[in-house]
Structure formats: C-alpha cells, structure tokens
Amino acid sequence: DAYADDPRFSFILLGKNVGKRKAQIAAIRGSSGDLVLNVDSDTILAADVVTKLARKMQDPAIGAAMGQLTASNRNDTWLTRLIDMEYWLACNEERAAQARFGAVMCCCGPCAMYRRSALLLVLDQYETQFFRGKPSDFGEDRHLTILMLKAGFQTEYVPDAVAATVVPDRLGPYLRQQLRWARSTFRDTFLALRLLPELDRYLTLDVVGQNLGPLLLALSSIAALAQLALTATVPWWTGLIIASMTVVRCSVAAFRARELRFLGFSLHTLINIFLLLP
C-alpha cells in the first residue's frame, strides 16, 4: 500500500498463480526501461546492487549480469552455513572463471539484470520451452542465460553486487532443490552444446567437467561399494583420493576467502556421495 500511489512503481496483478516464468514474462512485456532486474521474493539486495549491475551493463555487448549470492539465514543451521559456502564457491570460482571469458553459463535468478532489448529477442523461445512434452516449470535462470548467449550477447558476473537470499535449512527441501537444479543443468547442457564452439575453449572444459564430475564420483562410489561387497576389503585408495581432492579444494577456498570456515565444506562431499548421488 505504501507504494500504490508512487508513480515510479507499476504493479501487475495476475488472475492466478501462473508460476515464476509466466510472471517474469508478464513483467518484462509490461516494462519500459532499458534494463530489467530480476529479484526473488526472498532476496535482499545491498543498497548499491542496482548501480553496480547497471554500470556493468553499460557495455551494449552484455545481455545479462548477475551479482554475488549469500545466504541471508546463514547462521540458522549447519546446513545453511554449508549452503552459504556453496554459494560463495559457485559465484567466486565457477561464475568468476566463466565471466573472464564473457559467458557466465547461468545468471542466477535471485539477482540478475538483463538488457530489455535482448530479452525481447528471446522471450518467445523462453516462454515456449517444453520438457518431456510439458511446459517447463524449472531452471528458468539457466535457460534464459543460454538463450542470451545463443543470441550473441555476453553474460557477466559482478562480485561486489551482493544479494542475500533465503536458503533451505533442512535436508529434505535442500535435496529437492538440488534435484531440480541438476535436471536443469543436464537438460540445458544439450542446448548449450551447439553454442560451445562459438565460445572460449575453457567453457567447453567447464561444461564437460560440470556434467562428468558427478558421474565420475558416482562411478567411483559404486566401484568402492562393489569392492567392499565382493572382496570384503575396504577401498582405501578410492576414499583417500576423494578425501584428498576434497581437502585440497576446501583449503584453496579457505585461502582465497581468507576464512577457515571453508575447511568445513568438506562435509558437502559426504552429502554428495550418500544423499545427492543416490
């Protein structure tokens, strides 16, 4: 009500809950500015986020830019602390590396700015995406980013544009969220394959690694269980290699972030092996 009479705001009321994608499309088509900022309802933006994202978007070659995500409820449970570290790694390792080559492969939904003229070029494709014969209702941010790249625009990451979003504080919702994201990643990888030859070769390596990594971890885990079941011997080498890689990764993250808490991210490997992979 406080903003109802403010001419700077225009509210679009839909007749029913049509899902995030349809609501996005209605807002985009009803907008008039040069830039469109997508923010989730549970996301809090730092005061300078819009300014910093808009500054990055001054380059007309850039179609979308995302900010750095943190967990607003980080201190609630051990899981929210873990997810906050996961977000830091996803933003400051994966997205930051991709941005060096002008192609962030997924501008995350909680905080992403788009060029409206670019959106209008891909909006029909975005609206009519189907998955297994039905309109898609997940993975909107990744699919929209891929469409931007296919249209010839760059996608960027702005690390000092910080947004805090609510993350799951229980394992059940977290695992369901991860399943949706995994389905989106694998599905849109096929769409991105035709795009990769036009991008830097690092991005091909990155996409292949993201998709093969979980599969290799799954195969290693299955082989270890098979060894234990068939030979009654403990697969020490498999466990040692996985543990070593985990410690190295977490140590590098702790060094780069200057925070020892990242050593605790080792726990995420156990969640991957025993909960996410099954």
From TrEMBL:
<keyword id="KW-0808">Transferase</keyword>
<dbReference type="InterPro" id="IPR001173">
    <property type="entry name" value="Glyco_trans_2-like"/>
</dbReference>
<dbReference type="GO" id="GO:0085029">
    <property type="term" value="P:extracellular matrix assembly"/>
</dbReference>
<dbReference type="GO" id="GO:0050501">
    <property type="term" value="F:hyaluronan synthase activity"/>
</dbReference>
<dbReference type="GO" id="GO:0030213">
    <property type="term" value="P:hyaluronan biosynthetic process"/>
</dbReference>
<dbReference type="Pfam" id="PF13632">
    <property type="entry name" value="Glyco_trans_2_3"/>
</dbReference>
<keyword id="KW-0328">Glycosyltransferase</keyword>
<dbReference type="InterPro" id="IPR026463">
    <property type="entry name" value="Chitooligosach_Synthase_NodC"/>
</dbReference>
<keyword id="KW-0812">Transmembrane</keyword>
<keyword id="KW-0472">Membrane</keyword>
<feature type="domain" description="Glycosyltransferase 2-like">
    <location>
        <begin position="36"/>
        <end position="244"/>
    </location>
</feature>
<keyword id="KW-1133">Transmembrane helix</keyword>
<comment type="similarity">
    <text>Belongs to the NodC/HAS family.</text>
</comment>
<dbReference type="InterPro" id="IPR029044">
    <property type="entry name" value="Nucleotide-diphossugar_trans"/>
</dbReference>
<keyword id="KW-0536">Nodulation</keyword>
<dbReference type="GO" id="GO:0005886">
    <property type="term" value="C:plasma membrane"/>
</dbReference>
<feature type="transmembrane region" description="Helical">
    <location>
        <begin position="260"/>
        <end position="277"/>
    </location>
</feature>
<feature type="transmembrane region" description="Helical">
    <location>
        <begin position="236"/>
        <end position="255"/>
    </location>
</feature>
<keyword id="KW-1003">Cell membrane</keyword>
<protein>
    <recommendedName>
        <fullName>N-acetylglucosaminyltransferase</fullName>
    </recommendedName>
</protein>
